[in-house]
Amino acid sequence: VQLQASGGGLVQAGGSLRVSCLASGDTLRNYNMGWFRQAPGTEREFVAAINWNGIRTWYGDSVKGRFTISRDNAKNTVNLQMNSLKAEDAAVYYCAATYDPSGGRLRPIDEYKYWGQGTQVTVSS
Fold it and tell me: How many CB atoms lie within 10 A of CB 38?
């Protein structure tokens, strides 16, 4: 699976942005998808994940209530809608996939085998 993230950019604090991930090479139907982020000098952080059919979603504590993950298996895409952005949300955002046809639980970061190249999100205060 190859993943291509897009949609990053510069946004003012309090604004919204949507980043997207397009997959190729295989259907996303059997994959748990996740978004992670990494700011300079920090470890990669879990942001959100969604199971194969979109019924189950998980969020990091810092983004709950502000971010929404969704997927469209027919289009092989996963989106992350980010609202009420804060300065601390600025980072490179990565989408990732792990093969998980059962899709019943949140997978740890080290189980995500496929990663996109990242898209930069900058938040100005």
Answer: 14
pLDDT along the chain (125 residues), means of 10: 96 98 91 97 97 95 98 96 98 96 86 96 96
CB neighbour burial string for 84-105, b if at least 16 within 10 angstroms, e if fewer: ebeeebbbbbbbbbbebeebee
DSSP tally for the chain: helices H, then strands E: 0, 11
What is the token pair recorded at 51?
Answer: 């199971």
Alpha carbons within 13 A on the beta-carbon side of 122: 4
Question: Side-chain half-sphere of 121: how many Cα atoms within 13 Å?
Answer: 31
Residue 56, number of CB atoms within 10 A of its CB: 14
User: Strand pairing partners for 20?
Assistant: 6, 79
Q: What does the alpha-carbon distance between residue 104 and residue 122 come to, in Å, rounded to a whole number?
A: 33
